[in-house]
Amino acid sequence: MTDEMNTSMGLFKKYLVNNKIFRNREILRHSYRPQTLPHRTPQIDSIAAVLAPSLHNETPSNILIYGKTGTGKTASVRYVGAELENAGGHLNTTCRVVHLNCEVIDTQYRVLAQIAKLVENVDAMSSDRTRTHIPMTGWPTDQVYAELKNILENSGGVLVIILDEIDKLVKKSGDETLYNLTRINSDLERSKVCIIGISNDLRFTDFLDPRVLSSLSEEEIVFPPYNAPQLVDILKQRADEAFVPGALHEGVIPLCAALAAQEHGDARRALDLLRVSGELADRESADAVTEKHVRWAQEKIETDSMVECISTLPTQSKVVLYAMLLLHRINQKIFTSGEVMRLYREVTRELSLETLTHRRVTDLISELNMLGVISTRVISRGRYGRTKEISFDVTTDRIWDVIMKDPRLVEHNISRFNEEQAGKLFR
């Protein structure tokens, strides 16, 4: 770096020189697609076998793919899709693959319009065909469906539609979209359509009409969680390209793998741990990443995800959580649902908010427990019945900050009811 560049870099100069840790940190991102996917060969071969008829211009079966987060479902399907398009090009067969994230594209109109747009984008690269512009809103859904059929007929060949997080689409918009897509082949002559649905939720099919389910799940493939040795292989593959040689202590990758294996074998979690560990080491100008950095990364990731989770909670859940925080701050480290309810009533009364029933508050407490914000256990009190003991498993300072910055609660001046008032109530 020249003297002139050193001067112009200013604040960022120290972050750009003498990088001892990373060679290319993007390789540790979820979006990066490696050339090979360790420990997913059986699943990849199964998907390829189902899609192989596409290369003969025949209609492949639809596939439902299940597995927990971070088990390689999306990466494997994208890999097979890219290989299919490449093989189709060599055989002079039209095979297209389009990928939709149903967490974002979650209505029938948007799904149909996006498929049409993606197909036309692919066609535009290989021909001068006039493109049809379908607006993202405004047309009757029947018109969008008809236009999609026209586009597919003009294109010919086989189209593979990947619906990632398909359960989100079904829960938001019902199964009408899938009903239409699974039957579109009966309306086509020159083109064929195959659907691949990817889901983390094995129970989402409970929401489907039996006719839709039978059409959609012609083939089912389950992705099992990775175990710790498999995660070690995945991390080593990425680390060889992502880090400067010698930048990782020997125990870093096994520790990241072991911690992620406890989280249902989540490869994304393992990659996040490794990347954040490297970033923490880089920021403190360490010579190498150590197990200490992995422990810090685990704490940081858990805290950050917890903060994001809490910030999106409904107002009433935040008020219930605030009541628990007050109990915690007046040194009641373990408290009962009855005590939470008693304080919750006082908080809502003071802030002029609606007071929910005891049963509804109990439901909100259970939801907070499922999210990992609190820990609960039911204890028996003999003839006095059973009650729920509650405590915090995590540090509460960040949770407190999120609650105190909530715009609606700030508007109600939540700090008006603080530890002093809570202390008087339980004196």
From TrEMBL:
PANTHER family: CELL DIVISION CONTROL PROTEIN 6-RELATED, ORC1-TYPE DNA REPLICATION PROTEIN. This is ORC1-type DNA replication protein. Belongs to the CDC6/cdc18 family. Residues 59-227 form the AAA+ ATPase domain. Residues 321-403 form the Cdc6 C-terminal domain. Involved in regulation of DNA replication. It comes from the Archaea. Keywords: ATP-binding, DNA replication, Nucleotide-binding. NCBIfam families: orc1/cdc6 family replication initiation protein, PRK00411.1-3. GO terms for molecular function: ATP binding. ATP binds at residues 71-75, 226, 238. Pfam families: AAA_16, Cdc6_lid, WHD_Cdc6. GO terms for biological process: DNA replication. SUPFAM superfamilies: P-loop containing nucleoside triphosphate hydrolases, Winged helix' DNA-binding domain.
